[in-house]
Amino acid sequence: MATPRPVTPEAPFEPSQPPVIEGFSPSVYSTSESFKEKFLRKTRENPMVPIGCLGTAAALTYGLYCFHRGQSQRSQLMMRTRIAAQGFTVVAILMGLAASTLKSRP
Q: Could you tell me which residue ranges the HIG1 domain spans (predicted)?
């Protein structure tokens, strides 16, 4: 029977630091962006997504207001409008994804 080899001590695990993986950089951008900078960059890349989000929020808000006022037909119309705005937002996200994928190809 073979004798067990002594275990060599490795560097201690540091949970506050990301793991070092050879050939991998965790950040695509060399400088860190603030939330505002990232939001503005993403909005410039695909301006239809924020428009769709605002439309969705507006239809939801107005629909809830109409529901509270007892205008059930208008409330139902606004809920359907909200679904359409959500669909528009999803399509805008997919189109932006497809455009950025095609743009990054050589």
A: 20-106
